[in-house]
């Protein structure tokens, strides 16, 4: 039950924050906890895949994208 | 009074739908492209959470059989996991493609703001 | 205006969806409609008809392996499109990430960690039908190990270790391998992507090589996902 | 021969995967693509012959019977659409063979063929899918590769249009998947026919969940097939893509949403129960709006490709209008128009591509006085324009006849006005172009030499010829589609 | 003559296919050898005339020629030639032949000649197909096949004005064909078939049936130039080259009236029309067409525009005749089809000669051209007298029959409308003839030549004009008025149903 609340909070934080790097970190945390939730819901395959793909690849992609574009969301 | 109790019993579904809606709102509402992609991911993981919650049953075990093949206890629904696995991979490939488009657009016009991109194109 | 529209849509969708949720079958209900004759067959005790212990892998690589073929295609399309876009002309605001740092600590740790990750990834891929995990998770880990190498030793050395052309070739080859295994079923007189029906050996229950075609497909998917991830990150960093 | 249904999808997939294996050689990739499309056309023609007498071919993938395994089913509708789509694909690949060098970036030269084959696999997958989740996966393949063939053109507007299309198709994908989840939650079935069988029982205890699922699925597929209020992405996407890609996008990809909804309306949800819901009238209203407003937009366009894109929005509205009538003759007309529009719109886009590649101009004024220097192209454009308006002896007339007859048959005479207005509006923005092409003064001095490489001109003429042949001898497709409509409506 | 039996014959199919194939052949031949193409066109038109005439023996015996050609849609293309169809098809083939002969000389040295000839022959195929059609769908297909290529004839000069007129014509034609399409499908909905020659397919008198009737009225009204829908006609006809406008005014707008005639008597049936009284709509509109068309013609000083408005007026008479629903009115109506076709094409051909020889379009400058172009102006006068309805010519016979028919139908008021039409015709035709012959205007002195030499047109242009003028006169004078007899049979056939 606590994890679900954490997930929703993470989602809101990602939606509100201006700094994309912070958003990416929160998103990685969001994926990890999502993997945890799936493990609780008796779906271990998904837990591993979500951890590897969601937290791993997707967050890495966001980091690279921010690296190659800009970090702050609101432009001058 | 039935409504809150009914919803409380289905907490997982509520959380999943909330995530879906937050993701949808970010995807459609936010001008920044990378924020949109994050919203897309949150939306899709919301749907996946909804799907996995459908497959869960109280006191059920993970759908991994033991070699002995003896007991036939209560297992979680494996079909749902298969569907979500496919969904995760679809989400990743869409994210990869969208982000590379975003990078290329930034390279050409120096902005991630959808409204500015629209004006630049015209 | 876009913000207002999105919020309005949010409110309407929330109202509709929450109203329907109240009527949905309760969470965790043991006699939910989804637990029917279909799941009973998927959850056959022991190695069941497919010789695979992990029920999810049974579905992914045998009962519904056509879906997995489609999904491997989606990954192929996504990354192919990304590669095409990334290798376009560079714009004025281009920011290049060559990566790589000559910090000795980082390099030595990487040299130790990368093989370990690859061993674990190989374990996850090959034991997909016995324990949780499988082609996708293992493949991603394999790809991630290459990406770690790429970040630490820089794009140029990574490109020397795995040239983009070979990356694409391996990716295409593994995908064709998947289709060939499917066509194997056809050659043996059964239909496309058939496993037990086509006479692939089911092997001893719980053994490493059990599960016939499922094991082969898992290997193919693992290699394909790893090559795809590596290919994607090669094009995301370094000169093209 | 038993494996033809699955080969429809597997052959283009194998071709696409082999492209990178052959190394970065554009000419080899082109030949591979041509071979694969020819094979697909042969398979589709074979299937059409087999399903000609109305029986359907079932193929259990992996030899697992339906509710457990995935079933691929080819009925008369699927076979016919696959055949005509494969024919259009062959023409477009032939056309693209010589037009692609100028328009595409370096890496795209050989990846383009792989993406085209993947799109064909996605299309054939959707046409033959009989499992709800399988339908979703192939729709995703088609949408993703459709975006890819837009963004291969290394220009700012193509990439921006592809991004907008991608984001909206991701939203649509999310809605569809949620719809599938809801349906699975209350019925436990994914196979279309078993789902249809389990629905009445589920409707008893979970009526609102089914309504929500229906709403989500309809809005998702409508967004993917650009039904009127959800069409905003189409004009940018189809006009900034390279010509062969826009031909495929407008001709074929837009139809996938329609085919999926036809499967859902008539196989899963019992359409007689649907009539009680406001859904058919809503879809009809949106279709009618799409026809009128789309045409008004099209008239205002100065760019040829944007005009054709808006005309696609009109024709999609026209097809949805025919479907929503839930009448056997109108359904035959609508399905016939799916085929007609695929042939017509792809031919028109290839014509415009030829005109742009020769005059270098995209504006409607570029067509002035073009008939002298580009006789074959303008003649094909005229056939296309005539068919869009529904002049007799073209295939447009055949589908218009059935649509109007169906509208009258379903007891809504007032609705005939919508169809007639759509024909008149099409005339208002197509005929001035034809007239100016034949009788206008060429603005810029005409470049000498032939009107275009033969590999680009003959596919256009071939498509125009098929439109005329379908117009004059339409009974084969009509007999097939009539049977399909009767089976779907369960008459 | 009362019983009609059906004879399966391929004559109508060949008569329609010949110009269709001829047009394509003419275009291809024309790319290289101009002269050969000209004679090929004449041969094709003459051939179709001969084919039509070959039908006469069967028609005379009271037979009806029937042929089912290709199967298109569920209904297929079928032809059905009865007396009315035969008469009009023969007349139009004859006029087409004469117009082609006339254009050999008229189009010499013009631009776009190859396209002109091809589309001229193509529109012949369209009109023949319309007159010989056996069901509404075939009629619709050939109706379109005639109207759309006609736009190419209208746009021939490629001036800005021609393009605008052609676009207006094109959009109105397409609008008209949409109404026709709706009514045709509605008829199919009512009766399950669209075949002509029946007693009346639409049985009930529901609002949908009325909408179908009005759909046909609008569709054929646009083509026939009925008043509110005639706006395209005065722009399109003057702009087209003279032989083309002769065909446009002479025959093509007649197909509109012919369609209306067929629909009224064979789709709706006489008793349904009498019971519901829907033709009164047509009566009102046709009277308005007569008055408005003729009155505006008086104010036009451009010769071709005046002739165009006169066509509108004459079509009003024809539409009036068919909606009176009495036998003599119908006879007069069918005969007026014939008379007006011959006279109007003769007038337009004369106008072509006048403009080609004197270069003048304004009627007020026509002083004394009668001396320079005696034969042309004589034929112009004969044709003008026919349309005015002066006794010895065809016009008088048809106007007489129409008036008697009005009395038979118990609506004498409409006879007054016919009289008014004749009066107005006189007002705008006779001054032309008078100034041409008796006015000693100054042009002769302007060019200073001594005795004005006879600058008559080229014989191949004069011959058609003379034949047409004779056509106006010879039948009335001769004892055996062949077209009138055919008109009576046709009228009896239509009413008997």
Can you give a write-up of this model?
The complex is a heteropentamer of chains A (76), B (122), C (240), D (491) and E (497). By secondary structure, chain B is mainly alpha-helical. Helices cover 74% and strands 0% of the residues of chain B. Chain B contains 5 helices and no strands. In chain B, helix 2 (11-29) packs antiparallel against helix 3 and helix 3 (33-55) packs antiparallel against helix 4. Chain B is elongated. The termini of chain B are far apart. Chain C is mostly helical and 240 residues long. Chain C has one domain (51-89, 97-236). Helix content of chain C is 65%, strand content 0%. Chain C contains 8 helices and no strands. The two termini of chain C are 40 Å apart. Chain D is mostly helical. Chain D has 2 domains: 1-275, no CATH class; 278-491, no CATH class. In chain D, helix 3 runs antiparallel to helix 18 (454-472), helix 10 (243-268) packs parallel to helix 13 (304-324) and helix 15 packs parallel to helix 18 (454-472). The two termini of chain D are 31 Å apart. At the A-B interface, helix 1, helix 2 and helix 3 of A face helix 2, helix 3 and helix 4 of B.
What is the number of helices of chain A? 3
CATH architecture of chain B: Orthogonal Bundle
Strand residue percentage of chain A: under 5%
User: How many beta strands in the DSSP annotation of chain A?
Assistant: 0
The coarse overall form of chain A would be flat
Question: What is the C-level CATH assignment of chain B?
Answer: Mainly Alpha
Mean pLDDT of chain A: 89
Low-confidence stretches of chain B: none
Per CATH, what is the topology of chain B? Helix Hairpins
User: What string gives the helices and strands of chain A in order?
Assistant: HHH
**Which pair has the most extensive contact?**
B-C, 68 and 70 residues
How does the major sheet of chain B shape up?
A: none
> How many structural domains can be distinguished in the coordinates of chain B?
1
């Amino acid at each position: 039950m606590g994890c679900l609340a954490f997930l929703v909070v993470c989602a809101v934080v990602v939606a509100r924050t201006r700094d994309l790097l912070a958003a990416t970190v929160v998103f990685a945390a969001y994926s990890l906890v999502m993997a945890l939730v799936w493990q609780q819901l008796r779906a271990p395959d998904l837990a591993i895949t979500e951890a590897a793909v969601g937290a791993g690849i997707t967050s890495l992609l966001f980091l690279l994208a921010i690296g190659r574009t800009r970090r702050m969301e609101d432009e001058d | 009074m039935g409504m809150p109790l009914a919803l409380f019993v289905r907490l997982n579904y509520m959380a999943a739908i909330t995530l879906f809606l937050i993701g949808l709102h970010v995807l459609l509402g936010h001008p920044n492209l990378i924020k949109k992609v994050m919203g897309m991911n949150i939306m899709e993981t919301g749907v996946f959470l909804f799907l996995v919650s459908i497959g869960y049953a109280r006191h059920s075990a993970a759908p991994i059989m033991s070699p002995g093949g003896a007991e036939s206890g209560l297992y979680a629904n494996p079909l749902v996991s298969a569907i979500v696995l496919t969904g995760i991979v679809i989400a990743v490939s869409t994210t990869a493609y969208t982000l590379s488009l975003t990078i290329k657009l930034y390279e050409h016009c120096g902005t991630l703001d959808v409204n500015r991109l629209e004006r630049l194109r015209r | 205006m876009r913000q207002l529209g999105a919020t309005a849509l949010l409110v309407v969708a929330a109202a509709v969806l929450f109203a329907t949720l109240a009527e949905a079958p309760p969470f965790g209900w043991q006699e939910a409609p989804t637990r029917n004759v279909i799941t009973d067959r998927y959850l056959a005790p022991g190695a069941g008809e497919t010789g695979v212990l992990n029920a999810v892998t049974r579905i992914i690589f045998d009962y519904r392996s056509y879906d997995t073929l489609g999904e491997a295609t989606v990954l192929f399309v996504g990354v192919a499109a990304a590669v095409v876009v990334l290798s376009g002309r560079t714009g004025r605001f281009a920011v290049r990430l060559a990566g790589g740092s000559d910090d000795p600590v980082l390099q030595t740790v990487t040299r130790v960690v990368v093989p370990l990750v690859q061993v674990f990834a190989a374990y996850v891929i090959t034991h997909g039908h016995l324990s949780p995990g499988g082609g996708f998770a293992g493949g991603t880990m394999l790809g991630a190990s290459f990406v770690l190498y790429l970040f630490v030793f820089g794009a140029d050395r990574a490109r020397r270790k795995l040239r983009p052309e070979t990356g694409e070739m391996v990716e295409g080859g593994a995908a064709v391998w998947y289709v060939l295994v499917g066509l194997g079923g056809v050659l043996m007189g059964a239909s496309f992507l058939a496993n037990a029906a086509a006479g692939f050996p089911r092997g001893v229950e719980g053994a490493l090589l059990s599960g016939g075609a499922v094991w082969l497909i898992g290997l193919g998917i693992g290699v394909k996902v790893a090559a795809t991830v590596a290919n994607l990150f090669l094009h995301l960093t370094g000169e093209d | 021969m038993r494996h033809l249904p699955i080969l429809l999808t597997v052959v283009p997939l194998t071709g696409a995967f082999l492209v990178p294996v052959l190394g970065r050689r554009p000419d080899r990739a082109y030949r591979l693509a041509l071979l694969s499309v020819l094979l697909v056309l042969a398979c589709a023609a074979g299937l059409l012959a087999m399903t000609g007498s109305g029986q359907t071919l079932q193929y259990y993938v992996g030899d697992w019977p339906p509710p457990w395994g995935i079933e691929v089913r080819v009925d008369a509708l699927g076979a016919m659409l696959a055949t005509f789509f494969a024919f259009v694909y062959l023409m477009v690949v032939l056309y693209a063979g010589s037009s692609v060098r100028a328009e595409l970036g370096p890496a795209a030269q050989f990846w383009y063929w792989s993406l085209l084959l993947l799109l064909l696999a996605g299309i054939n997958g959707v046409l033959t899918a009989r499992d709800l989740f399988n339908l979703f996966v192939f729709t995703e393949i088609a949408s993703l590769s459709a975006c890819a063939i837009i963004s291969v053109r290394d220009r700012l507007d193509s990439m921006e249009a592809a991004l907008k299309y991608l984001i909206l198709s991701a939203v649509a994908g999310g809605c569809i998947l949620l719809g599938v989840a809801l349906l699975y939650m209350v019925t436990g079935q994914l196979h279309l026919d078993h789902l249809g069988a389990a629905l009445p029982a589920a409707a008893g205890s979970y009526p609102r969940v089914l309504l929500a699922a229906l709403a989500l699925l309809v809005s998702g597929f409508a967004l993917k097939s650009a039904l009127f209020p959800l069409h905003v992405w189409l004009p940018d996407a189809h006009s900034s893509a390279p010509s062969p890609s826009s031909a495929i996008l407008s001709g074929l990809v837009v139809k996938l949403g329609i085919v999926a909804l036809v499967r859902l309306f008539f196989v899963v949800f019992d359409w007689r129960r649907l009539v009680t819901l406001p859904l058919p009238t809503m879809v009809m209203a949106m279709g009618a709006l799409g026809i009128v407003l789309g045409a008004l937009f099209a008239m205002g366009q100065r760019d040829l490709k944007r005009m054709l894109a808006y005309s696609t929005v009109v024709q999609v509205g026209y097809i949805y209008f025919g479907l929503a009538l839930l009448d056997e003759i109108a359904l035959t007309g609508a399905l016939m128009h799916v085929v007609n529009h695929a042939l017509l719109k792809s031919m028109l886009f290839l014509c415009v591509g030829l005109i742009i590649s020769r005059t270098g101009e995209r504006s409607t004024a570029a067509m002035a006085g073009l008939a002298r220097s580009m006789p074959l192209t303008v003649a094909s454009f005229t056939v296309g324009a005539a068919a869009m308006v529904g002049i007799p002896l073209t295939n447009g007339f055949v589908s218009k006849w059935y649509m109007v007859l169906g509208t009258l048959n379903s007891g809504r005479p007032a609705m005939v006005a919508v169809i007639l207005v759509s024909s008149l509006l099409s005339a208002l923005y197509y005929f001035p172009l034809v007239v100016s092409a034949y009788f206008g003064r060429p603005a810029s001095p005409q470049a000498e030499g032939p009107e275009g490489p033969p590999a680009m001109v003959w596919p256009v003429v071939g498509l125009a010829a098929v439109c005329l042949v379908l117009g004059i001898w339409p009974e084969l497709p009509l007999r097939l589609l009539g049977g399909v409509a009767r089976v779907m409506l369960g008459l | 003559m009362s019983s009609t039996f059906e004879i399966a014959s391929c004559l109508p199919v060949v008569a329609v296919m010949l110009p269709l194939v001829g047009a394509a052949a003419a275009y291809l031949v024309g790319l290289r050898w101009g002269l050969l193409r000209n004679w090929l066109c004449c041969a094709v038109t003459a051939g179709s005339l001969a084919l039509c005439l070959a039908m006469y023996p069967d028609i005379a015996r009271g037979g009806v020629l029937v042929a089912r050609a290709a199967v298109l849609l569920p209904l297929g293309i079928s032809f059905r030639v009865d007396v009315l169809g035969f008469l009009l098809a023969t007349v139009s083939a004859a006029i087409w032949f004469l117009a082609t002969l006339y254009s050999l000389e008229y189009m010499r040295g013009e631009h776009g000649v190859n396209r002109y000839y091809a589309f001229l022959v193509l529109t012949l195929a369209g009109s023949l197909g319309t007159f010989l059609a056996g069901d509404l769908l075939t009629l619709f297909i050939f109706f379109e096949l005639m109207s759309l290529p006609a736009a190419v004839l209208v746009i021939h000069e490629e001036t800005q004005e021609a393009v605008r007129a052609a676009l207006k014509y094109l959009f109105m034609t397409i609008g008209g064909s949409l109404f026709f399409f709706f009514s045709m499908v509605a008829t199919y909905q009512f009766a399950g078939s669209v075949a002509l020659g029946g007693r009346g397919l639409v049985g009930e008198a529901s609002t949908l049936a009325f909408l179908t009737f009005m759909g046909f009225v609008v569709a054929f009204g646009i083509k026939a130039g009925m008043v509110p829908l005639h706006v395209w006609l005065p722009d399109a006809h003057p702009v087209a080259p003279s032989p083309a406008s002769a065909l446009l005014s002479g025959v093509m707008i007649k197909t509109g009236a012919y369609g209306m005639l067929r629909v009224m008597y064979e789709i709706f049936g006489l008793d349904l029309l009498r019971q519901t009284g829907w033709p009164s709509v047509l009566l009102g509109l046709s009277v308005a067409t007569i008055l408005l068309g003729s009155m505006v013609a008086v104010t036009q000083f451009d010769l071709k525009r005046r002739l165009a408005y006169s066509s509108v007026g004459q079509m009003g008479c024809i539409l009036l005749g068919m909606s009176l629903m009495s036998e003599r009115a119908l006879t007069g109506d069918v005969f007026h089809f014939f008379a007006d076709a011959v006279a109007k094409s003769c007038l337009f051909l004369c106008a072509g000669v006048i403009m080609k020889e004197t270069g003048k379009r304004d009627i007020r400058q026509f002083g004394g051209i009668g001396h320079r172009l005696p034969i042309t102006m004589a034929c112009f006068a004969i044709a003008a007298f026919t349309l005015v309805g002066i006794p010895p010519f065809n016009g008088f016979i048809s106007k007489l029959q129409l008036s008697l028919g009005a009395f038979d139908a118990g609506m004498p008021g409409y006879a007054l409308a016919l009289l008014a039409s004749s009066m107005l015709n006189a007002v705008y035709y006779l001054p032309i003839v008078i100034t041409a012959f008796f006015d000693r205007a100054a042009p002769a002195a302007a060019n200073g030549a001594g005795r004005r030499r006879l600058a008559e047109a080229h014989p191949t242009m004069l011959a058609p004009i003379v034949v047409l003028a004779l056509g106006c006169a010879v039948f009335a004078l001769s004892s055996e008025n062949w077209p009138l007899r055919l008109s009576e049979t046709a009228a009896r056939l239509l009413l008997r149903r």
